[in-house]
Amino acid sequence: MNSPATLRFALIFLAAAALAPAADFRLDDGTVLKGEVVSLDDSVAVIRTTTLGEVRMRRARVVEGLPGSDPARAAASEAASPEQGRRARDPAGYALFFMPTAFTPEAGTVTFRDFELFFLAFGFSPTNTTVFSGGFLFPISSSVQVLSFGAKQQLYSSGSSALAVTGNVTLPILEDTDDEEALYNANLVFSKRFENTFHSDAVGLHAMAGTLSSAGETLAMLGLGSEFRLTRNAKFLAEIYGPFEEFDSALLTLGFRLHAERLSADIGGVRPLEAEGDFLFFPMLVINYRW
Predict the structure, then answer these.
(1) pLDDT at 179
(2) 208-232 pLDDT, tens digit each
C-alpha cells in the first residue's frame, strides 16, 4: 500500500479531484450549493458539495444548474436569497410602459395593471411561457366601454434573453359601433438583459416589430425600449413605438419604475415625436401588482 506506484496514483487522483470544476446549484429558497452531480433522475438529484458532502433532494427544488432548470424560478430565488439582497426582482418585468418584453412571469402568477386609473388589465400565466390577459375601461359611463383580450407566448429563453410573440384585440362596446372598428395587434418581441456586479438586470434592451389593423387598414409597427437599473428598487425606462413608415408620429415615453417585490409604480411622460410648440410631455402613471 505504501509503494511508490500507489502513492503516485493517490497524488494524481487528488490532483484531478482538486482541479475538477465545481458548479453552482441554486435551490428554490435562494440557497446556493457548490459541487458536482453524483446522480440524477426525473425526481431526485444527488449533489456532492464541497462543504456538506453528498446532499440528496427533490430535483424540483433545484431551480438553476441542472438540465431543464427554470430560469424564471432561478431569478425569483436569487432575489429572495439573503446573500444576494442587492438584487431585487422587478415585479413588472414583463413590460415597460406600453411595450411588452419577451419575458413572462412564472406559472401560476396573476398580474394587475392600472393605467392612469383609466384602463384596468389583468393577466394570468398558466405556464412559465404563456400569458393570457384581459382589460377594460374604468366604468365612467354605461354607454362607453372597451374590452381588450391578449396573449403572449414565449418561443425561446436563455434566462437573460428571450423571444416571444404577442397578440391583442380591442373591442369598443358602443351602441353605434360594429366589428370593423375592432383593433388588432400582433408583435414579435426580443429582449436581452445584461448584468453587472450588483444587479442581474442592470440594463435591458427590447425590440418589437408587428402590425396594427383596424377597419381594413394595416400598419407595420416598430418599437424600441430600454431599462437601466438605478438602485435595488428603481429603474429608468425609455421606449418609442409607432408606425414604421411614419415614425415621426411615434410615441416617446420616458420615466421611472419604483418597485418592491410585488408592487411597482411607473411614473413618466408621453410625447408624440411630431409634437410642436410648448408641449413637452403628457403625464403617465402605471401601477403594477403581481400575486
Answers:
(1) 53
(2) 999 999 878 889 999 999 999 998 8
Using CA atoms, how far apart are residues 239 and 225, in angstroms rounded to an integer? 4
Grid cell in block for residue 164: 416571444
Map out the domains of the chain with their CATH numbers: 4-69 (2.30.30), 110-290 (2.40.160.40)
- d(Cα 290, Cα 271) in Å, to the nearest integer? 28
Q: What is the pLDDT, as a whole number, of residue 87?
A: 39
Nearest alpha-carbon partner for 149 in 176, 178, 183, 198: 183
Q: What cell was used for 272?
A: 408624440
Q: Which stretches of the chain drop beneath a pLDDT of 70?
A: 1-22, 29-30, 50-52, 69-88, 174-180, 197-198, 200
Whether this model's pTM surpasses 0.85: no
C-alpha 112, offset from chain centre: 15
**pLDDT (0 to 100) of residue 31:** 73
| CA gap 117, 125 in Å, rounded | 24
C-alpha–C-alpha distance, residues 29 and 76, integer Å: 9
| Sequential DSSP letters for the chain | --SHHHHHHHHHHHHHHHHSPPEEEEETTS-EEEEEEEEE-SSEEEEEETTTEEEEEEGGGEEESSTT--HHHHHHHHHH-GGGTT----TTTTBSSSSBPS--PPTT-EEEEEETTTEEEEEE-SSSSEEEEEEEE--SBTTBEEEEEEEEEEEEE-SSEEEEEEEEEEEEE-TT--GGG-EEEEEEEEEEEE--SS-TTSEEEEEEEEEEEETTEEEEEEEEEEEEEEETTEEEEEEEEEESTTGGG-EEEEEEEEE-SSEEEEEEEEEETT--TT---EEEEEEEEE-
